[in-house]
Each structure stands twice: as structure tokens, then as C-alpha cells.
């Protein structure tokens, strides 16, 4: 979900909650999970505007050496099966 869409859904969820809507009804209306709605309505106004998902572009994910080896093995197995 794009940052602008996420922020607008968070704002709308807070607005609907203040108007007495249940989290379930808000989730159905915004097509999101009720758990997300629950988090959003508890956020303060500053937090609503912050999108701290994932990591910065251009920064690669850090894997443990064991995980790297598992990935390599899985890729090799997939190549052999083709």
C-alpha cells in the first residue's frame, strides 16, 4: 500500500471511530484487518502520519549466515527440479 493511501486510511479510521463506528465495521469499510484498525485508532496524531514500514530503499536485507545457506540450498534445489 502506498504511503499516501496508508495515511489516509489511518486518518479515516480514527475519524470513523470517533463517530462511534466499531473496529469491525471500519475494517470492512476500508478493506483492512480489524487488527490494523485497532492499532490505528490507538495512535496519536503524530504517529498516524509516520510510515515506518520496511527499510530504506537501497538498503538490502540482513540475513544470518545460516539463513543465507538455506536460501542458496533452496534455490539450487529449485534449479535441479526444472
**Helicity, in percent?**
55-70%
Output the number of helix runs.
5
User: Rg to the nearest angstrom?
Assistant: 19 Å
Estimated structural class: mainly alpha
Counting copies of identical and different chains, the oligomeric state is single chain
Query: Low-confidence stretches at least 5 residues in length (pLDDT < 50)?
Result: none
Shape: elongated
Domain Terminase ATPase subunit N-terminal: 10-47
Protein name: Terminase ATPase subunit N-terminal domain-containing protein
InterPro entries: ATPase_terminase-su_N (IPR010332), Homeodomain-like_sf (IPR009057), WH-like_DNA-bd_sf (IPR036388)
Organism: Candidatus Methanophaga sp. ANME-1 ERB7
Task: Give a quick precis of the structure.
The protein is mainly alpha-helical. It has a domain at 1-52.
